[in-house]
Amino acid sequence: MLSITSQYLARYRRLAGDGSDTLLPVTGAQRRFVLVRRLDPSGRPDVVPMFFAFPQGTVDPERLRTAACRLAARHTALRSRPDVLRGTPVLSVTEPDVTLTRPAPAPGEAPADTLRRALAAWDPQGPALRLFLVHDEEREEEILAVALDHAVCDGRSLARIVDELGAAYGEEDLAAPPEPEETKAELAAYHDAVLRQLAAEERAETPAAAAYWADRLRALRAHAPAPLASRVPEGTRPSGAAQARLPAHDGGVSFPGLLDACRAAARELYGPGLAVPLGYPWGGRPAGADPVVGCFLNTLVCPADTGDGPGSAVTADAWWDDLDRADVPFDAVVAAVRAAGADWTGGLDGLLTVDDDSRRPPLRLAGVEGREVHVDGRPVRGPFAVSVTQGAEIRLRMVWDRAVLDDATAHRAFDALTHALRPSDHAMD
User: Fold this and answer.
1) Does residue 264 contact residue 420 with C-beta atoms inside 8 Å?
2) What are phi and psi of 397, to 5 degrees?
3) Separation of alpha carbons 232 and 274, rounded Å
């Protein structure tokens, strides 16, 4: 029987014929984002915004939009739009078209609320890269949102986009488009990288790997309650957030230690003695591929045991085995688990993302460094998500869907998370 990746490639080749410069295949990671969007009743995509505050008068809107269009022209993924043709997820390559919107605030509306409202109105048919600029009169600042469809970017891409957007903004001959040879070469490099990634996924989809994941995740089921609008307190935003800064110790916390901390949070949220599906992105560009902008991070699943048994050492043993099968795409893992008779349908009760602050360059426009800020309260895809930035200190953030989890329970879960990560509370691996 053909693997899911093999079936996908066969369908794509029937659509594209011998080759196409306007219709490209997608990675397993992109396929997941496109299909999740199709299953959402509103067709809402996963949007990744980055927010930067600049002193008032710093940003030249037209120059910034032109710089972003130049960036999109240079990178295939940024001028492409995710689509589904005859049931087959693809990227449709278009002309670069980046919008810069200056949403007008409603009477008495704070700048963060204006940005939240603008992002919530994201048209899924529009460009993958968009800019939003809001004036903050109280602080005499401008807040810039650089927002992307998650199907065309991952964490490694975000750092490059920020760096190159600032560089393009400072170019003297900004109006000149990239040379056609440069655009064509990048298109070929992107296409090659995606095909290499799909080849790796196709090789990874073995009967042995399917059996491994079926056994590893057979006890999973989603435990978060169904979303209910009545759970959201009147007049509050759709999501809650908490954050903390912890001292780094011996170079940071191991990834199994972070998974184990999320296990402690899940115990507070869903109860003890459960196998909770916790997702996390993992991967990178395939061997031999150019470092193109795009989405190459697979979503792996950890069955977080919310019992009181052994912690991160046991988590680490299983995690290393998981990484040996990390190229099996998410939808193939779900299919293998379902074929083994498990009840899990692919829903995640939590998500963990980890970043290194040395790989998060600030956005500089004409020599002025923007201050990265957070705009909380936006809708979130899953019940809860934890983001960790490691560097000179550990920065923790947790957000949760108020239609699923109440604030008091979520804050107890965040306290359990931070307690598990304090250097005196656990041994580093």
Assistant:
1) yes
2) -140, 140
3) 26
